[in-house]
Amino acid sequence: MMDQSLALLAFDAAPVGIVLSEDRVIRACNARFADLFGYERRDIIGQSFRMFYPSGSDFDRVRDIGLEPLKQAATYSDERIMRHENGKPIWFRFRAHTLTPETPLARVVMSFAPLAHAEAAQSLTPRERDVISGLSRGLTSKEIARELNLSPRSIEDVRARLLRKFEVRNASALLARLSHLG
């Protein structure tokens, strides 16, 4: 059996941010997680994840997105923009594994790996972030429009603007470009 001090060292030295959450409240995190968001660990233990989102409405919009996959397969993954302590946005590859599938958020282990520099994400408008978030979750323009209570044409306009802005030909290339900016 592995020495517990070695397990704690591996947890703390992991190259990605790792956090244990209970009902959306941070119970434990590694040093990398705290560093990614610009906080001291002691300042985020016991806090809600709401503090890491650009706005309360962003938190409300994305907080339940992965519930069904967590219930069905105990895992969920997406890409999302979150907020550094200094207010700058950070683009992450987010992964979650619930330890309690019957109540998925009761106890969840999550990892956060940065995908792009904050400057790249910062140049996005809130609507562009919404559309990219939907695209990264595999949604169509119609599904994104329904989620945001907008017309599909509005979403198509934002998509076209993003393709021009990042000089790519399609949504896959857009997501690849954003994930490799850093």
Automatic annotation (TrEMBL):
Domain PAS stretches: 18-55
Keywords: DNA-binding, Transcription, Transcription regulation
GO biological process terms on file: regulation of DNA-templated transcription
Residues of the HTH luxR-type domain: 117-182
A Pfam family assignment: PAS_9
Domain of life where this protein originates: Bacteria
Entry annotated with the keyword DNA-binding: yes
GO molecular function, one term: DNA binding
PANTHER family associated with the record: DNA-BINDING TRANSCRIPTIONAL ACTIVATOR DEVR_DOSR
NCBIfam families for the chain: sensory_box
Protein's UniProt name: Helix-turn-helix transcriptional regulator
